[in-house]
Write a structure and sequence with these properties.
Length: 642
């Protein structure tokens, strides 16, 4: 956050002027086929966002079935993040989020940060796909959510997909409402994308998909390519690969890259000359008795996949220590593993640590200059964080839906009351609060909530706040209840939406027999223990669904539209080799493999951001991927091996 950005944000906050580009959206959008309504954006927005000026949110009504006018509509939540340019490129970037069942609008700051590097030139469009995030109105099981709120908020990961568990009951409630779940699929979502861009007034656009969003991007190429200028697919789920049968393949390939990089490194190869066999030995030892322990807890073969998953999620020197970890595990030891997982090897940002690591060649004067500069950089970070908090507060205070409204004051007061309640009383309050989700705004219901759950000493003050609320405040209270519930139950609802889409369109393309056949070919068989444990429950849960396979959906996509395919060698959720494979049917496709990048490559390096940005500027030109060479890992070699 630069001083110029802070000043520009303050001017925008204090000015009454609105963003002219948003005027048409406030009037219902650009396409009468897809009515658009404006809503307050979910909070927090982020320190540099000003609602109505840098960002605007709402819902677009898309057909439930794009093949017929019958069947009603589905309201999809969207947010438009305006480019910082005064002369932006006319073609924005729309984010196709992962999952299926992830979300984008529900967490605007996270996604604004993810794509901030593109906002110098382009608008960014976020939307929650049908059934996902806060676009879940038509498939939300409100009764089950309220009745079992705690189970949704704190799901038992090992039982979440039990057929008689909360999600099974959620499915039964959703089906009982008459919703046609067969329309919740990737093909309909691809046509939603074109409808959204029409409603927002973007005839030409670019798409950026991550994880499941890459599968949606491939279907976009095939089903609704109109106006699509280019596509970036990052961490690729191929439509022609059985995604769940192959769940262990990414981790197996990622572990293979550790071995291959080590063998290509002279010092690593000398220190760990038979690393592949060492990993096999570590897997065997983890399966033996007595079990090894880590921080007092027994560990088994599932640690192999857990360890690779931990590597996938960390942008730090994690790979460097894996050869030593596996060498020790094979010998029945866990000391390096314990230090690695605790973050003991994470680089320290303190001036002393940075100078110790990089300042060996400096003289006294230059060392002092460097130390002072590092200290000033730390102070600047602190000032930036303080400015961010102040800007966010001012933004909410000045917004129509901001912190000075009666609704927000009531929310703060209720939150304060909740912190004083015992567990039983708090659960009762959460149960009744969750009942507001999906209901029409009603002031009397809010009064009943306060009268029922607020202690007598606080009751008059809170009832007074309810009485002072405008109709807009009452509606805002219900919107906040939805966002609160969405945030608290995100993991459960993601599992439910994933199953709605996966179970209907990916089965029987995926089968237990198919999983077993692929697992039999793993380079590192020990990877299967953890993957099988986490994957098999989905196969059982999917038996509850009717299957709706679509002819041709699982065939490889061909298209002349320019595509950049990005994969990372640490990715344990989608195959590291998928980029190279997917472009075989794309004559204008380019594949780039990023060393030391996990899932969502774009998060792991400036190199990935620069390549993606360069591609979006000139999609028909060859990308310059030279920077990937500098990303290859270096390895820890113990002193006795040096």
């Amino acid at each position: 956050m630069s001083p110029d950005q802070i000043i520009a944000t303050l001017i925008a906050l204090m000015s009454a002027a609105t963003e002219p580009a948003f005027d048409a959206l406030k009037d219902g959008g650009h396409d009468a086929r897809y009515p658009l309504t404006i809503e307050a954006c979910p909070r927090p927005l982020g320190p540099l966002e000003v609602e109505g000026k840098t960002v605007i949110c709402g819902r677009i009504a898309v057909p439930a079935d794009h093949d017929t006018a019958e069947g009603g509509t589905i309201p999809l939540a969207f947010a438009v993040l305006k480019s910082r340019s005064t002369a932006p490129a006319p073609d924005p970037v729309i984010y196709l989020h992962g999952g299926p069942g992830g979300f984008a609008v529900q967490k605007i700051p996270m996604n604004a940060s993810l794509f901030d590097f593109l906002r110098d030139r382009r608008d960014i469009v976020l939307f929650d796909q049908r059934g996902a995030g806060i676009s879940d109105r038509t498939v939300a099981c409100y009764g089950e959510l309220a009745g079992n709120f705690v189970q949704f908020a704190r799901p038992d990961e090992h039982r979440m997909l039990d057929t008689d568990g909360p999600l099974g009951k959620c499915l039964a409630e959703t089906v009982a409402t008459g919703i046609d779940l067969s329309l919740y699929n990737t093909t309909q979502s691809a046509r939603d994308v074109r409808a959204i861009m029409d409603a927002l007034g973007y005839p030409a656009y670019n798409a950026f998909g991550i994880s499941y969003g890459t599968k949606l991007g491939q279907e976009l190429l095939r089903t609704a390519p109109e106006g699509l200028r280019s596509l970036v697919i990052d961490s690729i789920s191929r439509v022609d690969s059985p995604a769940y049968d192959t769940n262990g393949v990414p981790g197996d390939q990622a572990l293979g890259w550790v071995v291959d990089y080590c063998m290509a490194d002279t010092a690593c190869a000398a220190a760990y000359p038979d690393l592949e066999e060492t990993i096999h030995a570590a897997g065997r030892r983890l399966a033996e008795e007595p079990k090894l322990t880590l921080s007092g807890q027994e560990i088994d073969q599932t640690m192999v996949s857990d360890l690779m998953d931990a590597s996938n999620g960390r942008a730090m020197p994690f790979t460097a220590y894996l050869p030593q970890v596996f060498t020790e595990l094979a010998a029945g030891r866990t000391e390096t593993l314990a230090r690695l997982l605790s973050g003991a090897f994470n680089p320290s940002p303190t001036p002393e640590a940075i100078l110790a690591a990089h300042g060996a060649g400096l003289g006294d004067l230059d060392r002092t200059i460097a130390e002072v500069a590092l200290m000033q950089a730390g102070q600047m970070r602190g000032a930036e964080a303080a400015a961010a908090r102040l800007l966010a507060t001012l933004s909410d205070d000045l917004a129509a839906s901001g912190a000075l409204t009666s609704e927000a004051l009531l929310d703060a007061a209720l939150s304060g009351v909740a912190r004083t309640l015992d567990t039983e009383a708090l659960l009762a309050l959460l149960h009744d609060y969750a009942l507001f989700v999906g209901q029409a705004p009603d002031r009397a219901a809010i009064e009943t909530l306060v009268a029922t759950h607020v202690p007598d000493v606080e009751k008059p003050r809170l009832l007074g706040l309810v009485a002072s609320m405008s109709d807009d405040d009452v509606a805002a209270f219900y919107r906040r209840a939805r966002i609160d519930a969405a945030n608290l139950t995100a993991q459960s609802r993601m599992g439910f939406t994933l199953s709605i889409i996966a179970c209907q369109e990916d089965f029987p393309f995926n089968t237990r027999a198919g999983y077993d056949a692929i697992a039999a070919g793993y380079r590192f068989p020990s990877i299967d223990a953890g993957v099988r444990k986490s994957t098999m429950p989905l196969y059982g849960f999917c038996e509850l669904f009717e299957k709706h396979p679509r002819p041709g959906f699982h065939g490889a996509v061909t298209s002349d539209i320019p595509v950049l395919a990005m994969s990372g060698t640490k990715d344990t959720q989608t195959n590291p080799d998928a980029a190279e494979l997917v472009v075989r049917g794309l004559p204008n496709g380019q594949a780039v493999l990023f060393p030391e990048a996990g899932h969502a490559v774009i998060q792991f390096s400036q190199c990935a951001k620069d390549i993606a940005e360069g591609f979006l500027e000139t999609p028909d030109a060859p990308v310059n991927a030279a920077c990937t060479a500098a990303l290859k890992p270096s390895f820890y070699v113990p002193p006795q091996a040096q």
